[in-house]
Amino acid sequence: MRLNTGGLAAFHIVISGSGWLRLWGQKSLRLNAGDMVMMAAGEAHQLQSMADHSDVSHDLLPHIANSSERELQLRGSDPSAPVTHILSGYFRFDVEMAKPLVRALPTVMHLQGENGQAPPWLEIGLQFVANELAAERPAQQALVNRMADIMFIECMRHSIEQLSSGAENWLRALRDPSLSAALTAMHAAPEKDWTVPKLAERACLSRSAFADRFRKIIGQTPLGYLTDHRMRLARWQLGHTQLPIFSIAEAVGYGSDTAFSQAFKRATGQTPSEYRRASALNVADESGEAA
Questions:
Q1: DSSP of 143-154, one letter per residue?
Q2: pTM value?
């Protein structure tokens, strides 16, 4: 089976049996009962019964997208081969807003079970999903979606906990009390007039120690990261709301339309008005409406 969910986080949980996961150009990964794999950026991949098997004729995405379809049965040429049961799905989220997280995650997150059993938290979640899908009930899909959200969060926590002390990325910063305090401040109030000394104060570090640690672990200066975050927020507001541009400028920390427009064009190559028009055209095209 093949699956390509670019912009969505795809996951597979091996309920029983075994198989292989293969991403284009990479070695195949052995999957056993109790294992969970997740591709945060939804890279194209395939599930197969053997490491060197190349049959990718069946596209899994239409079956996952059809919420009324409970089970897909695929049979190989050998009827005596053991059966593998896999629960697959994807998570839809705003890729632009989640960019720091997606960039920091490994291409494939692999949570391994023990002795054919999933980790306890995952076992509980799978039992809940099985019970919920046993019969048609009101709000069934909503409950299953919430359980999938919990699985996603647990997978994130597992990845953070597995980071080495020398890791240098956005996730590692979340485990650093000083940097996480600064990141929380920026994300909670992007409109504030943040400076490196003010952020260093939140981090309880000297200005130079804070700036050096931030750049080493996250790979950007504090104010460079803040600007990128403000631009992500601005792009979302321009594409999803009808707020006046001056209101968006204030919400992301700019005192005038002019300053905001100049910063936005440096970051995106478009003025805020041009970006908003282009976003509206894209939405119309995707919905099949005339532009």
A1: HHHHHHHHHHHH
A2: 0.75
